[in-house]
Amino acid sequence: MTERRAKPRDSKGMRKYFLAMAFFLLAGAMLSGYARAQGEVRLSYLGTAGWEITNGKTVILVDPYLSRLKIVTPGEPVAADDDRASVGLDDVARPDTAVIDAHIKRADYILLTHTHIDHVLDTPYIARKTGATVLGTESTINFARASGVPESQLMIVKGGDDLEFGVFSVRVIPSLHGILRHSPHASYFPSTPPSTIFPHDAKAPFRVRDLVIEGGTLAYFIRLSGVKVLVFGSMNYIEREVDGLRPDVAIIGAAVERREIYRYTPRLLRDLGDPRLVLPTHWDRFNVPYSTSQEPAIQRVQSFVAEVKTASPKTQVIVPKYFQPIVVKAQDRAERRK
User: Fold this and answer.
1) Which terminal Cβ of the chain has fewer Cβ within 10 Å, N or C?
2) How far apart, in whole angstroms, are the C-alpha atoms of residue 224 and residue 54?
């Protein structure tokens, strides 16, 4: 019998095979990582300028203020049928922990835009309760520290910072506070705050007048699970700082003070490239309980909705309802190019 010899393997063919396998494995890993990075986020309105932004794993709060103290605000008197105790400038500012506990179960990060009472009052309690990291100006961090938030949870940020936290990233945007000169109740508040920055050596407890300090204003450009969200906490902005940003969602201050700013809405939407979704913020009556009708404020914010639709017809506008999540899905690259 003639002995058959095994044919030598085609070394070139084997190399091609292994290279192809390596390519598909690498591509699969890259696509899997991309898929994990993409997804959806849920945005829930907490009232005033407060938001919860989450992908189901990481919870980010922006300006969480749920206490809604019965206090005269620049735009609203107190409600006659609100049976809670009124709060004046010389009263101690205390958060309503029962209301907070009813709605805030967890938080990983808290982003603060400025130091006014309707933006920062509830943060120390929430941070101590949840262990959340608090980001804000020197002024807001001074308040949080003086209110008992551990130093390990505090982070002073400045406009221009672009921070990576692994699960999300955030660009800190220098901004401006709204102008209140024509608000009907602006004269109720001191025209000259005691300081432009909340004092680093202040001691609790604090009175309402201590939180009239603005302390500088920031906005935040949040990147989470493939969705980009730009959040403002007031009715103003610095045009050069937002020009060229391309958020999927723009959360824009919509109170009547915006009318003090020249072409506030069309300029902003143009600079942002006509985002696919706009959510008005700081439009509600925030000195009344959640149970009080917001119909007057809903009617008032319709003028902002009309401004958006005129300036950017393809942009969707949703007037949010308290604690009802708005789901935003990440777009793939092809969709973004459309």
Assistant:
1) N
2) 8
Whose CA is closest to 297, among 287, 285, 289? 285
Give me the domain span that covers residue 212. Answer: 39-83+91-332
Number of folded domains in the chain?
1
User: In this structure, is residue 197 part of a structural domain?
Assistant: yes
List of residues 6+ apart from 329 with CB closer than 8 A: 39, 40, 227
The CATH number for 122's domain is: 3.60.15.10
Residue (of 110, 104, 179) closest to 140 by Cα position: 110
Is residue 81 left, alpha or beta, with left meaning phi > 0 and alpha meaning psi from -120 to 50?
alpha
pTM score, whole prediction: 0.86
Q: Which helix or strand (DSSP H or E) is residue 333 part of?
A: helix 333-337
From the CB of residue 156, how many other CB atoms can be counted at a distance below 10 Å?
Answer: 14
Count CA atoms within 13 Å of residue 239 on its CB side. 11
243 pLDDT exceeds 60? yes
273-306 pLDDT per residue, tens: 999 999 999 999 999 999 999 999 999 999 999 9
Which of the four pLDDT bands, split at 50, 70 and 90, describes residue 179? confident
Q: How many helices (H) and strands (E) does the chain have?
A: 9, 14
Contact 158, 145 (CB under 8 A): no
User: Does the residue 5 lie in any domain?
Assistant: no
- Exposed / middle / buried, residue 181 (Cβ in 10 Å: 0-12, 13-18, 19+): exposed
Length of the chain: 338
In a domain, residue 265? The reply is yes
CA–CA separation, 210 and 66 (whole Å): 19
